[in-house]
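Hi R.,

Here's the chain you asked about this morning:
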Amino acid sequence: MTDQLSTAPTVAVIGDNPTRLWGISMTERTRRIARAAKLGWAEPGVDGAAPAAPVVLVNPAFAFDPGWLRHVAAHPGLALTKGGVPVLAHATSDATAAAVAGAMQDGTVLDAPGLETVAYESGPTLENEELRKREVPFLDRLEPATVRSLERASYAGAYKGVTDLLTKYLWPEWALVLTRLAARIGMTPNMVTSVGAILCVIATICFFRGWYWTGLGLGLVFMVLDTVDGKLARCTITSSWWGNIFDHGIDLIHPPIWWYAWGVGLGAVGLALTDTMFWTVMAVMLAGYVLQRLIEGAFIQQFGMHIHVWRKFDSDFRLVTARRNPNMVILFASLLFGRPDVGLIAVAVWTMLSLVVHLVQLVQAFIARARGQKLVSWLATDASAST
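And the predicted structure, written out as tokens:
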């Protein structure tokens, strides 16, 4: 289910915690989450007294996925606890807010009549539509001994449930190390994106010159950084409109340029395609790339979800569909055999096959709807399992 706020309560942190997550205090992290959710912010009163209700009170002794704050804020009278101690609570009266604040400050079991209490230990789930998955978002006590495990949980929570095989299997650990490093030295996601953009341009130049191995190496670093910037933004709650445009703009534009540069570079290594073959391959790849994106957009517009999350097959096919990363696997394999020309042709063929699959998926969805079937992501479990 998707949380929709009927009223926007203020958010207040009760108490303090010197331990930081991703180099950020829990108060600042909560402030960023509240701002991103378009919630108001209130400072506690004297001696940590709760602000006037309605208010979402936050216990900084715990670290939690941003989804929990949005969920509790959307459900007046809901409290989320761990070990009986309140972590988040949406108080609708001043008396309830005072009781919750006292339990947070003392670290005691919550006793506030009128609140619906959900224990984290019961495994409540939320649906994350942006990241295309249903999950039990992370939540645990934030102490020096738990920082690394919580950062890993936060990082894992920022990963899309459906993505390509390289992003899912090859470099999650590499990107985690780099995300931690970037957070520690104060790099912003846009800084990471900028470094990646420079590497992307240099890799393109290498492909134009036929320096394929060098270009692949630089491209690999760029592709890893393309994961890092998004994870850093989500983990440090620093996503921005411009950052989203900057990152996704590069992602959208550069793949066709890479394929063109790769084709031109074939002449430098004595494997140039004929003019007819070259332009046929380029036309097929560009048309397939654009049409696949248009189909994905049409699916979202028509059915309210990504084409890759409808059925398990759709999610499995996303691992290898003709996007940049799977295509780079094909080109890498072609270099191992010394035939980058065959690799480019193979990418064109795979692009057309992927386009056919996308078209079939779209047609099947329309047929299913025409038969009265409601399209639901296979990743979403029964709504009754959520809080």
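Confidence is low (pLDDT under 50) at residues 1-6, 381-387.

Let me know if you need anything else.
M.
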